[in-house]
Amino acid sequence: MGDNVPEQGIYPISQALKMAQERELDLVEIAPSAEPPVCKIIDYQKFVYQQKKKAKEQKANASKVVIKEIRFGPQTDEHDFQFKLNHAKSFLQEGSKVKAYVFFRGRSILFSEQGEKLLLRFALELEEFGKAEQMPKLEGKRMIMMIAPNKKK
User: Fold this and answer.
1) Would residue 7 count as lying in a domain?
2) Which of 17, 18, 69, 134 is the most buried (most CB within 10 A)?
3) Quick one: 48 and 73 in the same domain?
4) What tens digit of pLDDT does each residue of 71-106 get?
5) Residues facing residue 29 across a β-bridge
6) What is the span of the domain harbouring residue 78?
7) In terms of domains, do 104 and 39 share one?
8) What pairing do the DSSP bridges indicate for beta strands 142-149 and 130-132?
9) Could you give the CA distance from residue 38 to residue 30 in angstroms, rounded to a whole number?
10) Cβ distance 64 to 58 under 8 Å?
């Protein structure tokens, strides 16, 4: 029922309001969707403060998503590819998402299928560390692909 109210039970609204006024407290609806609705006789300011405190704690406990970017050119050679692949593996192992993209300059946009092959190969090599959230797609002069880390067991 609330602060200093020993009698719990189902009361008509008028009686519950009267009980709250006698104690100089507020009648606060806790669960409006319940049948009958659940109310407490408490100080409303205290209730609002506790709600804010709970929301702040939940926000602090929420995990923050970190996105690391790896940039390729359409003609990236094998050594550079392996170097960037190793970086991506370490990013995925630490729990970060990886945004891999191929940047096309000038007429190199003609090699868009080559860039797509590169990104698909990249995702295939990282299969044991993470999974592709989206397939490569062309956005302006960039072909982008997101890879999320696998869930830790």
Assistant:
1) no
2) 17
3) no
4) 988 888 889 989 999 999 999 888 888 999 888 888
5) 39
6) 67-149
7) no
8) antiparallel
9) 6
10) no
